[in-house]
Each structure stands twice: as structure tokens, then as C-alpha cells.
Amino acid sequence: MKTVTNLFTCLLAASVCAVTSTCAQAASFETSFDCATARASVEKLICRDRQLAQMDIELTRLYRLALTDQRSVPRPDKILIDQEFWIDARNQCASTSEPKACTIRSYAERAHQLRQGSAIVRTKDPDRLTEGPLAFRCTGLTPLIAATFFNTQPGVVYLKWANTSITLNQVPSDSGTQYTGKDSQGSYRFWQDGNGVIFQKPGSGAMSCTAEPVS
Fold first, then answer.
1. How many domains does the chain fold into?
2. What is the pTM of this model?
3. Which of 124, 117, 173 is CA-nearest to residue 146?
4. Please, what is the average pLDDT of the chain?
5. Average pLDDT value for residue range 24-31
6. How many angstroms separate the CA atoms of 169 and 95, rounded?
7. Do residues 164 and 196 both lie within one domain?
């Protein structure tokens, strides 16, 4: 009886391991790199997170398009070098207090740079997950706001004006699309409903914004 019991225990343990392995594989999302051989902590995080995996696939698409654009700013050879530095910087998010938030910011900023510098990157593929940069003029704010959107689940918007930038995450909203976030200065809100746009930054009330033509 003891032998039978031990055999049953071993079979049960093997079954649990098989289920756990299957679940682990199911939790791994498609990325631009092989998750099976990922070593960097940030890469492992991306493999387990749907939003980050979507951002990774999209950014790789933008990067590859930028390399084909001889009119891009900077030029493709510089973009290649910049990408290597960017990957190193992205991987350093693992040592921050909020690795996922840091990684989201890293991808959003890099996507903004690539889309800003290349017309091909901005226009290729109707099913793209990124839009922008779009320009908004807000009452009470002198510089234009450049906005690049990641249509992931949930969505992300990267906002840049003057020497300031902030990455906001999409949150549930009764109407329109709303993004919120915060930095050391305080909380930010960016809300779109049809053609209406509201932006609020620390120390100011809600500002009404209108879209400006992008050259």
C-alpha cells in the first residue's frame, strides 16, 4: 500500500508540474525577442505583461521602418546606435522602484522619437498601434503640446512640451478617453471626447485644448 501511495504522490506531483508549465507558457506573450531565452529582468517582465508586449512589438515595427527611411532625423545609421543605447537604458528599469511604469515610459518616449523623426514611420500600416505626434494648443500654456499615443490595452499617451514630458496611462471613463499619471510635481490628466480635449497639470486648473496642424 505504501508503494502505491508513493507512486500516486509522484504521479500527482508530475501532473501539477505539467499544468504549471502549461500555465507559464500561456502567460507568455509574443514579443520581438525570444522569451524562452530572455535573461534581462525587464525582458522577462515584458513577456508576462500584455500591455508591455504590445508596446514592444509596435516599437520594433517603428524602429525597422525608421531604418528604411533615408530622410529620417536622425539618419538610419544613428538610429541603429541610438536603439542599442535605448535597450540598455530600458533594461535599467529593473532597478527602479516601479519597473513596469519605467518600462512604459521608456517605450512611449522612444516611439515618440521615432515617429517624430520619420514620415515613413508615421504613415506606414493602417493597423498600427501608435499615432502622432499630434500637436495641441491649450489655454494658459504657451508652448504646444506634442502627443504620441499607444493604442494598447490599456492605452498610453506621451506628452511633451518645452523641456517637460509625462507619460500617462488610460483609465476607465464614463465618456471619451482619459489618461492620468503623476510625477514629483503632482498629478496630470489628459481627456479626449470627440474634438474636445482637456489637459490638467499640477498647479493649474483644467485647460481646454485644440488640435493644431502638424507640418
1. 2
2. 0.86
3. 117
4. 89
5. 69
6. 21
7. yes
